[in-house]
Design a protein that fits this description.
With about 130 residues, the chain is of the alpha/beta class. It has one domain: Rhodanese-like domain (Oxidized Rhodanese, domain 1, 3-Layer(aba) Sandwich). About 40% of the residues lie in helices and about 15% in strands. It is built from 6 helices and 5 strands. It starts with a helix and ends in a 12-residue tail after the last strand.
């Protein structure tokens, strides 16, 4: 009887080990890029030679954007091609309106081989700095 109970426990343990844990997947995804607050984002980009990307629509960008930002709409068919000029070794700072599109862009950038990516938490909606 003990052998059967031990066998059952072993099988349960092994099967639990093989299941993917959505929480650990989220943690791994968060390590791919850093989501930073507006204050930290402002500090990071202040007076530095940076790569700053606004991934909103052209109309949104023209309505106001963070000073020095380059515009590359995340849903353009050639979005990845547009980013070929960027240096993969230099940090990239990315934002959108509220954080959803910039998250997608951050994942695309990581897939393309960029080393350090910073995503503005809450997007430009959370921004308190200078807007052009």
């Amino acid at each position: 009887m003990k052998k059967i109970a031990l066998l059952f426990i072993f099988i349960a343990f092994v099967s639990c080990q093989q299941k993917e844990n959505p929480a650990s997947e989220t943690i791994q995804q968060e390590l791919i890029y850093e989501v930073v607050t507006a204050d930290a984002f402002a500090d990071y980009i202040q007076g530095k030679d940076i790569q700053l990307l606004d991934v909103r629509t052209k109309k949104e960008f023209e309505g106001g954007h963070i000073k020095g930002a380059a515009h590359h709409h995340i849903y353009d068919k050639d979005f990845k091609e547009q980013l070929r000029y960027l240096d993969k070794e230099k940090p990239v700072y990315v934002y959108c309106k509220s954080g959803g599109r910039s998250e997608e862009a951050a994942l695309e950038l990581k897939e393309m081989g960029f080393k350090k990516i910073y995503d503005l938490k809450g997007g430009i909606s959370s921004w308190k700095g200078e807007v052009e």
